[in-house]
């Protein structure tokens, strides 16, 4: 079951069963009680979490962004770029997570270059899709027309 959850995560979507097993071997399952913090906004983390069972409430500056369920990653941006988390995640109920330490993952990627190439290609494709989605979202907003009008009024040619 955990292998299927890993396969559903964008970063690991291009990996075969053997490679997913390697990822699973460096992971551990952790349980967070209802209300327990998983990740805190602007506080360094050393792991990626993927929800196996349960759900997590994601907030930014105390405002609800989304509630994530089974298969959803937590801390993936910080896992990739080593930056601080941009939001807080707390268990909405008793929640089981697959935890992958950054250090262990980096070591595995260093040992298996072919697998690393697959993972980083998946990262690039996921980022491209997110950028396309963001562009589409921005395009459909009324305020974009106001920005475009303002930009057009400032043309000097």
Ordered list of secondary-structure elements with their pairings:
Layout: H1 2-8, H2 17-25, E1 27-32, E2 37-39, E3 47-53, E4 56-60, E5 63-68, E6 73-74, H3 76-81, E7 88-91, E8 95-101, H4 102-111, H5 113-139, H6 142-153
Antiparallel strand pairs: 1-8, 2-7, 3-6, 3-8, 4-5, 4-7
Biggest sheet details? 4 strands, antiparallel
Q: Structural class, from secondary structure content? A: alpha+beta
What coarse outline follows from CA principal-axis ratios? globular
Q: Encode the helix/strand succession as letters.
A: HHEEEEEEHEEHHH
Bin the helical content.
40-55%
In quaternary terms, these chains amount to single chain
Number of helices: 6
Low-confidence blocks of residues: none
**Could you tell me the mean pLDDT?**
89
Residues in β-strands, percent? 25-35%
Determine Rg (CA atoms, Å): 19 Å
Number of strands: 8
Strand order of the largest sheet: 1-8-3-6
Distance between the termini: 61 Å
């Amino acid at each position: 079951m955990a292998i299927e959850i890993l396969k559903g995560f964008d970063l690991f979507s291009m990996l075969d069963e053997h490679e997913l097993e390697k990822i699973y071997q460096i992971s551990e399952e952790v349980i967070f009680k209802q209300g327990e913090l998983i990740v805190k906004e602007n506080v360094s983390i050393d792991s990626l979490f993927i929800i196996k069972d349960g759900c997590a409430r994601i907030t930014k500056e105390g405002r609800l962004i989304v509630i994530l369920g089974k298969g959803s990653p937590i801390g993936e941006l910080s896992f990739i770029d080593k930056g601080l988390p941009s939001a807080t995640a707390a268990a909405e109920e008793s929640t089981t997570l697959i935890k992958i330490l950054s250090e262990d993952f980096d070591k595995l990627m260093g040992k298996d270059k072919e697998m690393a190439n697959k993972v980083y290609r998946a990262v690039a494709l996921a980022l491209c899709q997110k950028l396309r989605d963001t562009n589409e979202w921005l395009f459909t907003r009324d305020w974009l027309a106001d920005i475009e009008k303002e930009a057009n009024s400032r043309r000097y040619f």
